[in-house]
Specification:
126 residues, mainly alpha, 3 helices
Length: 126
C-alpha cells in the first residue's frame, strides 16, 4: 500500500474512533443519569455501595475517554504534518497501532460495564 494510502487510512480510522468515543460519551452520560434516577427512588440501603461503585466507574470512564480522544486528535495532527512527506514514520505507525489496541480495550471494557450495570439493576429492581 503506498504511503499516502496508509496515511489516508489512518485518518479514516481516527475519524471512526472519534465517532465511537462520542457515542461512548453519550452512553456514559445516559448511564449516569439512569443511576441518578435509581438513587432518587426509595431503595434498599444495601444498594448504595454498589451504586457508588458504578458512579465511580462511570466517572473513570469519562476520564479514560477524554484521554484517548486527546491522543487520537494529537495523532491526527501528527499525521497531517507528515502528509507532505507521504511517508508515515515508524513512530506514527507505532502510535496508530497502540491507539488501535487501546480502542479495542476501551470498547470491550465500556460494553462490559454497561452490561454489568444493566444486569445489576435487573437483579435488584422489582
Amino acid at each position: 500500500m503506498p504511503a499516502d494510502n496508509k496515511i489516508n487510512q489512518m485518518h479514516a480510522e481516527n475519524e471512526t474512533w472519534l465517532r465511537t468515543l462520542d457515542y461512548f460519551f453519550q452512553e456514559n452520560y445516559y448511564l449516569k443519569n439512569r443511576l441518578a434516577q435509581i438513587a432518587k427512588m426509595k431503595i434498599d440501603a444495601t444498594w448504595l455501595p454498589h451504586l457508588e461503585a458504578f458512579q465511580n466507574k462511570f466517572i473513570d470512564k469519562d476520564t479514560v475517554l477524554s484521554i484517548i480522544k486527546k491522543e487520537i486528535i494529537q495523532q491526527d495532527h501528527s499525521l497531517k504534518s507528515w502528509e507532505n512527506n507521504r511517508i508515515p514514520n515508524d513512530t506514527l505507525m507505532l502510535t496508530q497501532s497502540n491507539l488501535r489496541t487501546d480502542m479495542q480495550k476501551i470498547e470491550h471494557e465500556f460494553n462490559n460495564l454497561k452490561f454489568e450495570f444493566n444486569k445489576y439493576l435487573m437483579n435488584v429492581l422489582q
